[in-house]
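Entry 14. Structure prediction run on the chain below.
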Amino acid sequence: MTDHPTFPAIGRPVDELVAEIRGGRGDDADWRAGRTFSLVYNAADPELERLHEAVAHEYLHENYLNPFAFPSLLRMEREVVAMGADLLHGDPRAGKLTSGGTESIFLAVQVARDHARAERGIAEPAIVLPETAHPAFAKACHYLDVTEVRVPVGPDGRADLAATAAAVDDRTALVVGSAPCYPFGVVDPIPELATLAAERGALCHVDACLGGWLLPFLERLGEPVPPWDMRVEGVTSLSADVHKYGWSFKGASLLLHRDEDLLKRQYFLFDGWPGGLYGSATTAGTRPAAPIAAAWATVRYLGMEGYLRLADQVRAASARFRAGIEAIDGLHVTGDPVPGIMEIAADPGSGIDMGAVGDVMDDRGWHLDRQQGGLHAIISPSHLAAADAFLADLADAVAHHGPSRGVEARYGGVG
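Output returned:
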């Protein structure tokens, strides 16, 4: 039985504690060397990292629960929303920053639920979404008492329009599409999904937590990106994580609505207690200030030129990984993902145990996510330098894979 620490009787010196913290990190993933996928989005930019550390120090203690106490944060949030809205062709007055993609999705479901109840009289709303949609939607439905209806995807991994149309009915409050989806990195047919939603009077949310700060720049670089953002009529909300391909640190996500009336539905106000008026624009009460300031500083530091440069590096690293993976006998990348996201899968009949391959990669210090169909990688600029070592280890793992030692103990993240 593991011994549990008791509450300390006396405090310890700062230097001693810092040394213990640093000394205890020996088994942590080496994200700076490109050893992690999805957990840390590493721009491989020492100056950006220095900026983040300075911002974190500057805003370590402030609480954004009351934005009027810290007008600098209110200004920065409004400016990040406006800059993001400009990028995504939305309304600069109709957005907020949240703590991450899960909170953005939660609020999008909450707004759709309340809209359906108030405007359409639906007592028990439902949302319709492809089976590839992020688990945060399932979590939101669980907490908000909304029915979740998942429908199949087509052979290309994109939402099946016929199955979606069959599932949408008079209870549907929200239709969801991803840009791109996490498992396969493909963009759902957003215009068609938005049309299906509008025909029923439902809202349509685009989960661009992954692609919101990448697809606009890939499009400018000439990559074929299908319509997905606020230019699509019928899209009523969109989430885009600044702490993913926006290159800021955790946790900052942008949630944009079509208009201010929808945004207002996520506000919470309460005065039924002796403590005065309580109000919040997001799920959280206390809100850490540093992620908001870091989001602002990151966008200002990189600008269009910097984001295009990093997107091009993601594209180059993805091409190198994909070519190397598909050169390994028995492996392929699932479907045709946008640059940056990919599932590494075994060819049918190859006999390759991807769980065992993943175990070997774990042992060699690579932190790939596990999926039902294979191993999952999200590519950052830091992976350019790590590509050759990764591909050599992957080829060796495939050639010498043995029985899996229990994939269930090694889940990857999907944040």
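The longest strand covers residues 172-178.
Filed with the rest of this week's runs.
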